[in-house]
Design brief:
Distance between the termini of chain A: 74 Å
Number of strands of chain B: 2
Oligomer: heterodimer
Strand content of chain A: under 5%
Structural class of chain B: mainly alpha
Helix content of chain B: 55-70%
Distance between the termini of chain B: 66 Å
Helix content of chain A: over 70%
Largest sheet of chain B: 2 strands, parallel
Low-confidence stretches of chain A: 44-94, 591-599
Chain lengths: 599, 915
Amino acid sequence: MASTKETYRVELRAAARQLGERGLYSAAKWAAELLVGIEPDATPAPSAAMDTPSSSGSAASGGRLLHLHRSGGSSFRRRLRPGGGASEAGTPLGGVSYVSTPIPDDDAFDVGADKYLLAKTYFDCREYRRAAHVLRGQAGRKAVFLRCYALYTAGEKRKEEETIELEGSMGKSNAVNQELVALERELSTHRRTGAIDSFGLYLYGIVLRDKDCEGLARTVLVESVNSYPWNWSAWLELQSLCTSSDILNNLNLKNHWMKDFFLASAHLELKMHEEALKRYERLMRVFRCSDYIQAQIATVQYSMRDLDEADMIFEELLRTDPFHVDSMDVYSNLLYAKESSTALSFLAHRVFLTDKYRPESCCIIANYYSLKGQHEKSVLYFQRALKLNRKYLSAWTLMGHEFVELKNTPAAIDAYRRAVDINPRDYRAWYGLGQIYEMMGMPFYALYYFCKSSYLQPNDARLWNAMAQCYESDQLQMIEEAIKCYERSANSNDTEGIALHQLAKLHSMLGQSEEAAFYYKKDLERIEAEERQGQNFVEALLFLAKYCKNIGRFEEAELYCTKLLDYTGPEKETAKNILQGLKRAQSGYPSMDIDDFAM
Amino acid sequence: MNVFAGVGGGAVGKEAASVGGGALLELTPHKLAVCHLVQIFAPPPPPQAVVAAPALPFPFESVAHHNRLGLFLFALTRSCEDFLEPPLEELLRQLKAVDSLVNGWLCQQLTSTLSALNSPDDLFNFFDKLRGVLSAPEGANVEDEFLDPNSQLGVFLRCCILSFNTMAFEGVCHLLANLVEYCNSSETSYDFAEDEAFNSEIEMSNFMDANIHVRDAIFDKYSKGYAPESHMGEDSSSLVHAPTSLHDFDEAIFKAEDNPDCLRSRWQLEAYLNQQADILEKDPSLVPLNSFNATMSQLQALAPELHRVQFLQYLNALTHDDYIAALDNLHRYFDYSAGMQGIFSRSSSSFQDIIVGKYESALLCLGNLHCYFGHPKKALEAFTEAVRVSQMNNDDSCLAYILGAISNLLSKIGMSSTIGTIGSPYSLGNNIGLGTPLSIQQQLLVLLKRSLKRADTLKLTSLLSFDHLSLAKFDLKHVQRPLVSFGPNAYTKLRTCPADVCKNLRLSSHVLTDFGVDGLSASSDNGSFSTSWLRNLSAASNSWCSSSTKSRKVLTNDFDSFHFHAQPSPIPAAVLQLAGSAYLLRATAWEHYGSAPMVRMNSLVYATCFADAASSSELSLAYVKLIQHLAAFKGYSAAFSALKLAEEKFPSTANSHIQLLKMQLLHERALHRGQLKIAQQICDEFGVLSSSVSGVDIELKTEASLRHARTLLAAKQFSQAANVANSLFSTCYKYNMQVENANVLLLLAEIHKNSDNAVLGLPYALASQSFCKSFNLDLLEASATLTLAELWLALGSTHAKRALSLACQSLPMILGHGGIELRARAHIVLAKCHLSDPKFKVTEDPCSVLDPLNQAVEDLQVLEYHEMAAEAYYLKALVYNNLGKLDEREEAAASFKEHTIALENPYNEADSLAY
């Protein structure tokens, strides 16, 4: 176990360094976070590990890099190789044997090292074109990558600027990354001649994605992660291209342990919550202290409506890392769902102080205002979040909710529709659209949207309930269809308990008292199990009492009536009447049917 | 004289309104070029006050020349051929055609001016100079020549100047960069293939190709000395080149932009979309589904807030029968625009009350979609919801349209009276306050009348005309019963009323005079004139390019002559379409009432006068009527040769009318020739054509089983034929199709007659006759009378007298209006009546028998109707035998044999499906 962990550590250390050297900051950040997240070995032998030069790297990579260049050295790497990248197969994690991937050797650039250094500093200072310019003519893979990456980034930056500059009366003009064509040409040439490393492939993949060649982009990204699995950004790009589980299953991925992270995250995205949770829990055994996994687990649990559990995890997360913003929007959604405005305000304050110009921060603040009922302000902050990231899916949806509260239906519809167009699999937005149209008294029109949403989320009782309510509405009155929908809802664990009650009601409306009694009984069981009471309970009891009496099951009827006696109101009197009738019937008197008149 | 003062008066207001709304023109290099040309066209007046007589500005030789440039510029700002602006190359070519008099001075001037704009400051000065064009000089009087700021060009110029003034520095930089691209694109001398076909896809691909060339040129410029690039893929989307080394690209951080994709002005875009919608509506087969979608998504990428593009995508999917895509696009369009960009797209900026907006129009569209795809129940649900929502929103005009749509649905889709009363809970019929539920037909009538009333009060002339047409259609086929009848004494005349039909048809044509009132059909310049003017121009210039040997003189006036269709019609196409359908309906009405010449005349009027505005399906219907007429009066060979011509115009695979007609003709010919197998085969094909959903394609289904029964009858399978006819009768009865019932009853009578059950046949014939009477189907009635005569005749010679009088009774109608088959039959019956009359002596009056028989034989030869021809010859032989004319007898007998053999051994089975 320990040796496995050590292998991971060595791999991650090298990865964080290599990624950082190439300007792939977030991937490097992710790797470094994970590295720290590995559970410390039980055996107190840190000193031994410290001694090896390979592990000392994580402390001050910049300095070491410098040192490395000065010594012109490949000596360091030669020593590293047997430790990290060698053929030693990783110990199985959870019974699966992994393919070990050798850590690739960095280019030995004796010639262009200085220029690379200069370019990297330019890159770090965000002078991308300058960086690319410095590296022109350099043929080393690392240099080629950084040059292309700098160009790409420069193009992206320009694109962002242009989107603002070119905004016309008919919407944005199509600002595109001007470098894409040249980059694609160059990188495809390199790929064909084999003169490309996995980082280059990653860049090629995102260039292809931007050019809407998704199939090829997927292939290239798979190549990239297979040859260098530690680049989390590449995995994320790959994930964004896997829009269905079919695509996911058809990927030809090497079985590296990073694949587990990918699959878990992809499953979460595809709403396969159980699978995701299982995988994350397995990963937790090794990366016990990883914040990332914690946050992901919390997200899964939130998605599975396990609010308390998720709340605990997020709280813990914030305690260990108070300046964490990444998945805090999920936390804010959770707090919103739990209606704990104090905690939400606390969170909002904290992220505001940490970095107020992040879309997540704006979203959290908006959530807070929404919870407080100040919907105008909430919309304002959602709009800010969307200004920062136009493709921020949940912000569009949530803004739609706010507009609904403000009774601004066209704006709400627009917001939801944008969410749907960004991700057609967002069932919440489809549901929102349906709700609005239903509110506007257009249940038939709304059905289309409910169909869409329940198609995407077939096991969600709420969606089926909504659809059934449309069918059941005064305007449509398609009772048979409504019953079908409620049945689906009841079968998919309807926690709100609407389905059973409605089923019973609709059946009794259609005169199918047997089915009605069946569902009333089930509803009764559910209510009793949840120890709740209310009008539904009374209604069910009353119906069952009458029904049992009518079919001659007097004991049962008596039971229901006695239960009814606990309640005040007209039902109590009715129950008394029925009881009297029962007694008469049981004692052999001919039934007078007084109680029937009473009803 | 103000140059172009007040040109396009109405449009100016619209443009100005859109400017007021903050939607400025977006400056593009093309617009700069136009601005420059405007400046040449109307140069700023010299600073010194008016000295000379109003002379032409410098380069112009004549007033005509001057005006031509003005017209050209006007067309440039109005044309809507494409959504992208043309590249400089294209503009120069067009300009050359205008400019041929001054040796391309304008072109040179234009290119040099544009390429001289090198810095933001140059642009600034350029616009400064432009401002001078608009300001009238001090002391100028009205007679002087200057550009009216309120003219089309004046407004254009002002918009450009305003747009530049509000532009941020970034915008100026972009404009400059685009300008460089724009100028570069003309420097490279690629061959821009000109295509006349109005297919934007081809244009697009040309455009893309051009882009590749431009790119190549740029690369050439920046990468001198590299190995030649090789194209890896042929398609333009992957601009994959393989230069061997690339690093020096960085030397010049050039704007690797494609030729700038500049959108035209909003007005032009909308006109372009309207034009595309018209084409889609007229003839979907002209627009390929996928390439049109590609064009639209490109436009959408360029203008994401122009939501009407989605509506066009919906239309496209609808006309190409793509249900899912149509539904998706419909919902998307209304989600985004909330119906505010208007579905009645003719005039979106004015007539606020006409834009029914909001969501009831979404439901209206949804209902129409379901109606189109044959989902009557869903369509009704959508419509009832639309009614409710529009009542809630007080949207009267939309409500009127919805009622019209519902009645359209009800008349189109057969609804049995037993199932599914409209809109289950919300019965529209009950709304009028009658306790009793109404039949579908009554509901339809009520709805139509309500829609008519609303349309009348709201002055929606198009709808009014449409409702009149629907009412005429209704009156044609239905007896109007009073909704409430009190007591047994209430007198009801159970007949249709042709006068009502005529009245409604005449009223519906009022749309031709009243259309100005209706905002929807208001005539406005939709840019088509400018578009075709420009297209003619480029055609002219093209021919000039290709044959430079032509003398200049010949060309000077060539492009001034417009094609005929380029003339702007004072009547909008939609109105013409409605007015045309009145004629088509008139033809149908006469078809029912049984006057062949009137059918032909009305169809001819339609095909000649309304062909331009008609949709392909309606136009083909007119053709079908004409060809049917030919078949009935001139025989099959004439009909088939006409059909061939029609098929060239409308490919039969795409056009259901033509396809149906072809099958009808083939079936009838096969029946006449006795090729029963083929007839059966065609019957089966008929059955496949209709949808399997009950209630949909009712007419097609009726016709299929009618033909099936007739085939069985021809095959002498009487009981089966009777079964089919009986079930057909009950279906027709269920769906209240009384007119068809008359036909079916007659067929039943025929079946019984042929199976020697004349007694059984009599009641059917009588019933058919009475049906025909109450629906005024005169020709059919005559034919029923004829059958009745035959039936009496079959009962024995004692009834010959009665039969003769019946036959004579039907003769005027049949000889006046009937087709040759019917005429021949009447003649034969007449002869038979005489012959079987015991008192009749052939020798006394041979002509009264022989004349009709000869006439019948002549007609039947044309029709190739072997069975009846054989009968006629047989009778002839009998008569000649009686007369003792043996030679003639032998001749007739030989012909009889010939036809009988032909009937029993149908020849050329193989080619009988050909014609």
